[in-house]
Every structure is written in structure tokens, then in C-alpha cells.
């Protein structure tokens, strides 16, 4: 495994486990403590991780997201259950927006079994999956291609959305909390998400709890701009209580 591959593995492993001991990385990678510490130093210089006693954890300030193919491997069972729950909120005949993401892909899989729906998305993976479902109407936004996330972003994608009436939008994110709201490390994603908040009748954030407490450079909106949040039961109780004070619907799903 090359140094770049090792560092990619460490960063991906942290997204799933939040905090990892150096001794665990030594065993997993089958390399020396010195090699792991050298990789960690580079990841720290890149702003991706921070050191804690005996190990490392993700930096709360997200500088870069994992590519779609790697995100799909993380917390897959939780995403599948959250996706199934989210799909149950969709009514026949609705126009549904699925934001780019691996959890929204799980929603698409459940909605593919339905009839009389129109699906709008900026995600190529969702589009490809639904392409051979003739009972569904399917729209892709087009726009600037984000190759890492298999999606379209930017103002051109947002302009397409402005011509549509969306009944229910499922919004994804890599980072969210009460202080920073929904945020992203990539400015181009802001245009699409903010447009959805304007045009959709019901905006639902869907995210597993591992993304709570993280924030990116670019702010999308405060959580009070949402109608609903779908998350798993690992979201801290105090956070749940604070969210319920925002006059939105909080759906806690056991995963």
C-alpha cells in the first residue's frame, strides 16, 4: 500500500469510527508506529484530522469530502434503514427531489418500487439506477459535474430547479450542527441546496449522527429553515431536545 493509499484508508476509517487509536492503525495497516505517525502528521497539515490522547479523530472543520464510492461503504446499514424510513414519507403523485448522496441513493432504491412519482435529482448514480424504472418520471438537473460525488452542482443546476415545483426534497450533507446549520466545504453545492429551500414545499435533512458536530467553510442555512430532520438514535439526547425547540419535525430512527 502506497503512502497516499494509507492516508486515504486512515481518513475513510475515521469517517466510520470517529476516533481511532494509533495502535489500531499500526495493526490494520501492518506498518510501524513511525510510519503511522508520519501519515498522521501529513493529514494534520492538510487539516483533515486532529490528534487526541493515543490516537486521532476527524477535524470538526471538514475541508474535503470523501468520494461517492468510498462514502457508500460507510455506515451502509444505517443509511439503508434511514432511506427506507424517508421513502415512507413520500405520497403518491408527488414530485420528489433527491439530493446527491449515498443515503439519498437508498431512498431512490425504495422509491423505485413505487408508481406515480416524479423524481428530480442532481445525482448520476441515482439517475442511472432509476433509468430502467418506466413507471417513474425522472429529471436530472445537469450542470457543473462534481466528479468526486457523481453529481451536478453550481448555479446552472440551481437554475433548472427554479423552473420546477418540488413537493418534498431530501437534502444531504457532510456536516451540520446547531451553531453552523447545514454547511459544506464546497461552494458550488450551496447554490443547489439554497434553491431547494426556496422552491420545495417540504425540506427534509437526512443524515446519520456521525455528521453532526462537523462544519464546512460554506454555510447553506440554519436548521430552523428546515421542515424535518431524519437521523438515527445515536444523536445525543441534549441535541434532540434543542432541535425540537426549533419548531421542526425531528424523526429519530433506530438503526
Automatic annotation (TrEMBL):
Domain HTH deoR-type: 3-58
UniProt keyword terms in alphabetical order: DNA-binding, Transcription, Transcription regulation
Coiled-coil features, chain-numbered ranges: none
Entries under PROSITE patterns matching the protein: HTH_DEOR_1, HTH_DEOR_2
Cross-referenced SMART domains: DeoRC, HTH_DEOR
A GO MF term: DNA-binding transcription factor activity
Keyword rRNA processing: no
Superkingdom to which the source organism belongs: Bacteria
PANTHER family: HTH-TYPE TRANSCRIPTIONAL REGULATOR SRLR-RELATED, REGULATORY PROTEIN, DEOR FAMILY
Protein name from the UniProt record: Glycerol-3-phosphate regulon repressor
Species per Swiss-Prot/TrEMBL record: Xenorhabdus innexi
